[in-house]
Amino acid sequence: MRFARSLLVRVSLCALFVAAPCGAAFADGPHERTQFGHDIYVGAEEDVTEVTCMGCNVRIRGKVESDVTTFGGSIAVEDQGEVGGDTTAIGGNVRLDKGASVKDVTVFGGRLRRDPSATVNGDVSAFSGSIWLLLIFGLPLVLLGAFIGFIVWLVRRLTRPRMPIAA
Question: How many angstroms from the chain centroid is the CA of residue 66?
Fold first, then answer.
């Protein structure tokens, strides 16, 4: 289990470093917020189109018209906060406080904390624990490695020189 956590941390860090240069490039307009490593706060009177955060946390007290997504961070929809689209946390937690309203909630590798008075107008999918992150990111890498190993073995076998048969 310790090896799995170590591998998970390494894969997550590599993904974050690869995504770092393109963090702000995804924000199309002034009402979208995209950050890498800096927390995002949507105030009570603010109206934002979309929020994306890599390696940071998101706090919402206002309204987000579309999706809120974090990679390696948590989402907190606080008192009277609204999310009109998907609320997705990969490797982080989602907290829905009293009076919060969201459409769909998806949590991979984290926990969902939901106040009884919080409203979810769609689906709730919670895959708690780090094993889900390992399956999502680790399993495809293992399969890719096995495929590459098979190709190398096949090429070596087909290009091996033939030994003459002794008479």
Answer: 17
